Amino acid sequence: MLSKFFKKRRLQIFAPVNGEVLPLEHVPDPVFSEKMMGEGIAIMPAEGSIHSPIAGTVILVAETKHAIGIRSHDGTEILIHIGLETVSLKGKGFTVHVKMGDSVSVGQLLIDVDWGHVRDHAKSTITAIAITNSGEREIHFEQVKESIMGETILMTVFPK
User: Start and end of every PTS EIIA type-1 domain (predicted)?
Assistant: First the structure.
């Protein structure tokens, strides 16, 4: 019975969108590939909107609607950055369904994305999922090539 109290708690991070899973190092932007924002993973979206990969609280909604931050109940902070150089779209192609301070659950709709608009007007649709406080966490990456939103586990995070 006491062993339950001493087991490390873990946080499973689910895919926020359907697509091809790639190492963060493959993102053609040094901010992500060199892990300046933290450890993580990337998805080349195939279809669909962006959904919450964890249960937690929305802590950031970019003014330009291209990025969202969520803090889990254990304090893990996740940034989902949709596409590359999408700040230049000034919010066009994105419809946000949550606001800062909202509680969200796994699979909850966060942002609708017009992937055609992003593809036509930004550098890439590749979407980075970074753990911005990864220095305080131990992260295990799942060996998956394709993601299904809300079903595929991308990473498991443990406190250090």
Answer: 29-133
pTM for the whole thing?
A: 0.93
Pair of tokens at residue 76: 């893990």
| Active-site choice (26, 51, 66, 81) | 81
Transcribe 7-75 into DSSP letters: SPP-EEEE-SSEEEEEEGGGSSSHHHHTTTT-EEEEEEEEES-EE-SSSEEEEEE-TTSSEEEEEETTS
Catalytic annotation on 81? Answer: yes
Domain interval for residue 109: 10-154
- Spatial separation of the C-alpha atoms in residues 99 and 116, rounded to whole Å: 25
| CA proximity to 93, closest of 69, 65, 123 | 65
Going by the DSSP 8-state scheme, the letter that residue 6 receives in this structure is H
In a domain, 4, yes or no: no
Per-residue tens of pLDDT for the chain, all 160 residues: 444 544 558 999 999 999 999 999 999 999 999 999 999 999 999 999 999 999 999 999 999 999 999 999 999 999 999 999 999 999 999 999 999 999 999 999 999 999 999 999 999 999 999 999 999 999 999 999 999 999 999 999 998 8
